[in-house]
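Quick illustration, no need to memorize.
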Amino acid sequence: MLPTSNTYDYQSIEVELLIREAFENIGVFGEFVESQKLESARRSIQFLLQEWESKSTNLWTLQTRYISLNPNQGKYNLADQVNNISDLIQVNLRNYTRQLDGVPQSNSGQSYDDSGGGTAASAFDSNEATACIQTLPDGNISFDYGENVTQKINFIGIQSNTTQNYSLVVEYSQTPENPDTWFPLRITAPMGTFIGIPKQEYPEGIGLIKWFDIQIPVDARAYRIRETGGLTLNIREIYFNNRTSDLPMSKISRDEYYSFPNKLLQGRPNLYYLERLISPNLFIWPVPSSLAFNCLQCSYKRAIMDVGAFMNNTVDVPARFYPALTLGLSWKLAIKFKPEAAESFRTLYEEAFTIATIEDSENTPITIMPDYNAGYR
C-alpha cells in the first residue's frame, strides 16, 4: 500500500490559488492572468460571498454574544455591541444570581492587600457612578466568599469606567490570602475559548458590560480578574454570577412591534424585533423593569469576512465549500471573459453549492409524535 501525504494543506487555500483554478476552468492560463484580471476575480469572490450571506445560514458564521440591557430602555443599536452582524437567529433573556455575600479585595500587584488597589467595594455595589480605581498597573480585583464557603461561578460581567484595551485573566482560589494559589479559568468569548480573555476593548458607558461564560465552573472560595497587559484597572462593576437560566424570546415583525400602543410598558422582556438597517437596531418588549433583567444571549449570523487586499490571504469559508466557491467564481469570470460558457458554469456552481449547503447542516434527528387526543377536543 502506497503511503499517504499525512498533510491537510487543502483545508486552507490561498485566494490566488482559487482564482487561478477558476481562470483555468474557463481556459485562461498562466501569463494571461495579469494583475487586472486578478483584481477583477478578487472583487467577484467578494460579491459571491455576500450572495452566500443571503442564500443560506452558514454554520461557520454563527456566534453568540451577550448584550447588556438598561432599565426602561427598549431600543439597542447593535453596531455598539456587534459590528459584523448579518441577522439574529435566536434571542434569550438570561437570568442569573449575582453572588455578593462576601468581602471584596483590590490589589495593585500580586499581594493580597495593597493600598494602591483602590476601593474594591465600588466594583460590587451595583452603582455605576462609583468605580474601583487602581494606581498601579497589572492589579487585580477579587471577591472572597469566606472560609468554608464556596460558589460555583459560571457567568461573569466586567464594566469599565474608562475605555481601555484590557488583557484579563479570570482566576479562582481556595486560599486567596496566598498569592501562589490562584489558578486560571477557561473563558468562552465570542471568538472562541481561551485561558484568559483575549485583549479587547472595554468601552466606557452606562450599561456597557462585557459578558463571558466560564467553560468549566469550579467550586471556589474566591474569584478575581487580573490585568496582565500593563494597564491600570479602572472598573465600575464586576459580576460574579451563577444559577443562570435562559428564557427564549419570540421574534415579531415590524408591523407587530409598531402596533403595540405602549412601547415603554415595563416588565420581563419576551418579544424582540430586529430592524435590519445598515446599522441595525434591536427592539425589545416589554422594556426591562429593573436590573433584574439586564442581559440578552443572542445567537447571530455574522458577516463573512472579505478576502482582503492580499492574494496570500485565505477565504473565510470551510474547505467543504471550496468546490462551490471555485465554480461560482468560474461562473462570474465566464460572464466577463467567456460569456458563451457562463450558463454551463452557473449550472455546475449551483449543483456544487447545493451539495455544500446540504452538508453544512446540523443533521439532528426529528421526532414527530401523533396527537391521539386531537379528535376529542
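The CA atoms of residues 47 and 306 lie 9 Å apart.
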